[in-house]
Design goal:
By secondary structure, this protein is an all-alpha fold. It has one domain (49-105, 127-450): Amino acid/polyamine transporter I, CATH 1.20.1740.10. The chain has 15 helices and three strands. A hairpin with a 2-residue loop joins strand 2 and strand 3. Helix 2 runs parallel beside helix 10 (268-298) and helix 5 packs antiparallel against helix 14. It is globular, with a radius of gyration of 22 Å. Residues 50-438 form the Amino acid transporter transmembrane domain.
Length: 457
Amino acid sequence: MERQELSREEEKTTSRPELVFSVESSTVQVNGHQNTNETVVASAHTIDHDSWRQVGVLLVISFNNGYILTFSNLILAPLGWAWGSVCLVVFGAFTAYANWLLAGFHILDGQRFIRYRDLMGYVFGKQMYYITWILQYLTLILSNMGFILIGGRALKEIDTELSGSTMRLQYFIIIAGVAYFVFSFLVPNISAMRWWLGLSTVATIIYVVGLMVILGKDGTSNKNKDYTIQGKSEVDKVFNAFSSIATIVLCNTSGLLPEIQSTLRRPAVKNTKKALSLQYTAGLAVYYGVTITGYWAYGSSASDYIPKELSGPKWAKILINSMVFLQIIVSQHLFIAPVHENLDTNFLKVDESAMENLLRRCILRALVFIVNTFAAAALPFIGDFVSLPGSFALFPLTFVFPSMIFLKVRDKTARKEQKVWHWANIVVFSTLTLATTVSAFRLIVKNARTYRFFADT
C-alpha cells in the first residue's frame, strides 16, 4: 500500500483525525488532543492523555502480576542455574532493546500509529496487517485465559487454607472470570486504570514482600534442594529449554507496545522510553528476583504456582493469595484492553445514547470473558497459556517485526553494519520462533495425554 501524506497546511486545518490505515470502522472520535500535526486513526479509547510516570508504574505493576509465581517452575527448573541465568540476562536485554527500537516508529511521516497492526499495514501492506492482528490477538486471548486460571488458583488456595474444602478449581476460575469482567466494565480503557494503580501497587508490595520472606525461610530450612534439570531424555530437556526461553520473553514483553504508547501524551516516543526504562529496571528486578528466589528455595520441584509450596504461617499464605488475586484483577486489564478497544471502536455508536452504549459495552465484555473463562476452566494447564503465546506470537512481534520496520523505513539512510545487524536479528529470532513453537505444541500434546478436560489441577 502506498503511504499517504498530509501537507502541513492540511494538518493544521484538520479538526478531526483521519483514518490513515485501518480496515476497521472509524465511527468514534479520538478522546485526546486534536490540535496536533500528527494524524491519528479513530478510536473509542483515550489517546494522548497519560504521563510517562503513570504508564511506567502501570508497566511495573502489570508485569509483576500473578504470572511471576509460575516462573521458577517454567523458566529455571528446565534450564538450571547456569543456562537459566544466561538466558534471563540475554533475552531480558534483547527484549528491552527491541521495545526501545519499536517505540521509535510510533510516528512515521506525520502519522501516529496507535495500533501495532496499523503500523505494520502502513509499512508492508494489508497482509502484514492481518498477520500482526492474528499474532497479537493470540497473545492477548491466551494470556487472558492464563490470568483467569491464576486468579482461580489463588482463590482455591485461600479456600483450602480457610476451610480445607474440596471445591473444584473450575468454580474459582468462574469467580475470577466474573471479577475481571466487572472490572473491565467499570474501567473501560487503559487510561482509566490510573486511579487503581495505587491499590494495585500496595497489593503488589504486600504479596512480593511476604512471598520473599517465606521463600527465604523455606530456602534456608530446605537442606535437600535438587537443582537437576527436568526431562526424561536429552530431547525432553532441549524442548523444555525452548519453552523456558519463550516464557522469559513473555515475562518481559507484551507485544502491544504501540497500543500502550498511544495513551502517552506528547512527546510520545520520548515518554515511552522513560516508561520502558522504569519497567526494565524496577519492574524487572522484582519479577526476576521472585523467579530466582523461588528456584533457590525449592529447586527443580518448584510448583507451577509457588504459593502452593509455602510452608506458612497460614495467615501469611491467605494474605499472599488474597493480594495476588486483587492485584491481578487490575494488572490483567492492560493485556486484554486492545481487544476491548477494537470491539468498542467498531460497535459503540456516537449517535446513540450513553445507556445504549453502556449496554453494548456490557455485552461485548461479557462475550470476551465467557469464552475465555470457559477455555481456562476446560484446559487448566498454565504452561500452555504461557509458552504458546511467548513462542508463536511474541518472538516475531518483539524481535522480528521491529527489525523489518527498520530495514524498510531506514533503507536509504542505514549503515551497512546496521542492516547486517537487523537481518541477523530477523534470521536468528525467526529460527527461534520455529523452535519454541514446536516445543510449545509438544507441551500441549503432552498435557492433553496427561490431563482430561475440566481437570481439577
